[in-house]
Write a structure and sequence with these properties.
By secondary structure, the chain is an alpha+beta fold. The protein contains 8 helices and 8 strands. Strand 6 and strand 7 form a beta hairpin. The longest helix has 24 residues. The structure holds zinc ion (2 copies).
Length: 213
């Protein structure tokens, strides 16, 4: 088994992204990575060849993590999501900073320390943005940009980027929160959250996963 020290951070990030794409969309494509990291196709294809050679991914109907690649991704993602929970729940940081700092913390915890963090947090099922801690089940739902009028519950904010989280926070779109979709026009989705009305741009609504209540 390759230890994580053999992997450069950019390579780790690709593996995590592939894991998260599989988690949410069922599969990962090269074009998804190009879009997510805003790098050239050449850079991505070099990284993919490297990961393939290391036996961490294979090209099969898109990109697939091998069991070894998956276990590295899971270890990092579990560490990332528990770090975020620790930063928001124990230290009271907001969900933008907690995501940023978790990128660093995810690399430092020895396994036994991570276990302590997990149990101190009462084994949470998700990170503050609603992404499941690997091994714990979260029902996926629909995108807020794609549903009709009605009442729903927020499941997760898909991409944890600052501009997305800031807008989601402004509209009170936290996991578990009940919301009502009042209508949409292709540019905006109109919402009522906690008695207040919001017009959310579709680019943000595409990043919000919701369920029927
Ligand atoms: Zn995060
Ligand atoms: Zn998160």
């Amino acid at each position: 088994m390759k230890s994580m020290e053999d992997l450069s951070e950019p390579l780790e990030n690709y593996i995590k992204e592939i894991y998260e794409l599989e988690e949410i969309r069922g599969r990962a494509k090269v074009t998804d990575l190009i879009e997510a990291f805003q790098v050239s196709p050449g850079t991505i294809s070099k990284a993919i060849s490297k990961l393939e050679k290391m036996g961490l991914i294979e090209r099969k109907n898109g990109l697939k993590l091998t069991p070894e690649g998956k276990s590295i991704a899971e270890r990092l993602i579990r560490s990332h999501r528990l770090s975020e929970r620790m930063l928001t729940d124990m230290l009271g940081l907001d969900w933008i900073r907690s995501h940023e700092i978790a990128h660093k913390l995810e690399h430092i915890w020895p396994d036994d320390v991570l276990e302590i963090i997990d149990s101190k947090l009462d084994k949470p099922s998700t990170c503050p943005h609603g992404h499941p801690i690997p091994g714990r089940k979260v029902e996926l739902g629909a995108l807020l940009s794609e549903v009709g009028k009605g009442k729903y519950k927020v499941i997760m904010i898909i991409r944890e980027e600052e501009w997305i989280l800031r807008e989601a926070e402004r509209a009170g779109l936290f996991p578990g929160r009940e919301i009502e979709v009042l209508g949409s026009n292709g540019e905006k989705v109109y919402l009522r959250v906690m008695g207040k009305e919001y017009a959310l741009s579709v680019s943000i609504a595409r990043e919000v996963m919701i369920s029927d209540r």
